[in-house]
Amino acid sequence: MKRKWKIFTGTIVLLPLIFILPGLVTPKIKIKTNTRIKQSLTKVFVILGNPVRLSEWMDGLEKIEHIYGLPFSEGSKYRFTYTVGNSKLSAVEEIVKVDWKKRLVIDVKMSKCDIYMDMYFFQMDNYSEILVTYTLSGNDPVARLMLPWMKPMIKKKLKKGMNRFREMMEKTNL
Length: 174
Fold this sequence. Notes:
This protein has 174 residues and is α+β, with helices and mostly antiparallel strands.
């Protein structure tokens, strides 16, 4: 009986530790996506940065408000409002770097999580390629602990968004 009690107690202590440990060790997660689009690099770069077209491929986007700066230029800021399930989510996006048709860096601030997006653009033979590295960091202890466990779901959602962008770009004559 004593041995069973020790095993039970040890299990009760170890399970939360196993759940918490990844979030303590890795406060940030990185996710990479690679999207190929059968369209010219100029069109891809311009449409990706066009706020009017974002709702066509960004899931749950309700509205965009310009806060500061020239549109699609370094230092410009926007407030995005999303619907996620039954709740509304607000994010402030700042364009950190714009290197025409080469690189775009965006910093997104939200209440629970921040996302730093570093996008590289390449023109290949008959398609454009976008390589994106997302760095996500939690802003509160619960978000920090949950990020490593949510990584597969977040990656799937990010890939789905980029696939929607690719589909939009390939089906329209821009």
